[in-house]
Amino acid sequence: MNTRNPRYVCRAAAAVLTTALLAACAQPDVSHYAAERPKLDLQKYFATRSHAWGMFQTRSGEVQKRFTVTIDSQGAGDQLVLDEQFVYSDGKTQERRWTLQRAADGVWHGTAPDVVGEAIGRIAGNTLNWRYTLRQPVGDTTYDLDFDDWMYLMDDQTLINRARVSKFGIEVGQVTLFFRNRE
Asked: Domain map of the chain by residue range?
């Protein structure tokens, strides 16, 4: 091994850079939170009307959009339907109707008109991790954005949500939401 050889130096630098990039992209698995309490039960949490307050930030941290959401739900058995009514800081409104189904293995599957394919969610302890692609209008264009959505139940009434939003694997921003229900 010749450490003065330019090829060796380039390969070593590439290996170090690749390892650093992979480590930066690594995220915890939802099972890491299995012992956390209170335990998240989606049907129980969304059994009453919920309200949420949130914002979208660009990857530089600039708050680009603020919004509030009112969520009404109905459910039976392993199915839960969430009707979300968004009001944005610029006065625009949006509706989304999630249909969620819990499978026998405990994994949640979700659909909505603006979700491409199916959202897949896993719960462990107080945490839910959703992954899905959302078709989102921006100006005159529509983008398919990938969401890596993490929800943490803080107490019986408070749920904090952080989502990493990306396109082609590159982060374009983050969504932060605070949910509150009135049991």
From this structure: 28-181
Q: Which two tokens stand for residue 129?
A: 């991790």
DSSP string, 110-159: EE-TTEEEEEEEEEETTEEEEEEEEEEEETTEEEEEEEEEEEEEEETTEE
Closest C-alpha to 51, from 70, 64, 66:
70
pTM: 0.84
Q: Cα(first)–Cα(last) distance of the chain, in Å?
A: 67
Tokens of 48: 């009453």
What is the H or E stretch that residue 95 is in? strand 93-102
Between CA 83 and CA 74 the distance in angstroms is 9
Which residues is 35 bridged to in the sheet? none
**Architecture, CATH, for domain 28-181:** Beta Barrel (2.40)
Q: pLDDT tens digit string along 155-168?
A: 999 999 999 999 99
At 173 the pLDDT is: 97
Report which residue type is found at 118: E
